[in-house]
Amino acid sequence: MKRADDFQERRKHIANLSDEELYKRFWELTEQVVNPLLEYGRKNTTPSVERAVLLRMGISSLETQKIVEGCMDRGLMGHGAGHVVYKLSKEKNISIPEAGTMLAEGKGWDEVAALFTKKEDK
User: Which of 2, 67, 72, 87 has the CA that lies 20 to 30 A from 14?
Assistant: First the structure.
């Protein structure tokens, strides 16, 4: 099956545009495609993405699962597991891996949940 050559017909709406106008039009269309993806990424996450973030923060792979589950159990996934660990580390003035270990051991969850509750109340 041969595709009909309809290039000239399809390009009529942009045929009279200058190179600068074409360049601008390209980036406008690109934004229309990419912006919903960026917005989706900001509002949605998965346990595997959160585990990957924690790994890159220096938290052991054995602890990441426990931290992500703890976040899900407490409704903190929307804040991001990495953010949860970061907030606890800043509050306690400890390293991020130490905060991760603490959460993986089941310690500090009430405190970190309260930190996010305070933020939401403001």
Answer: 2
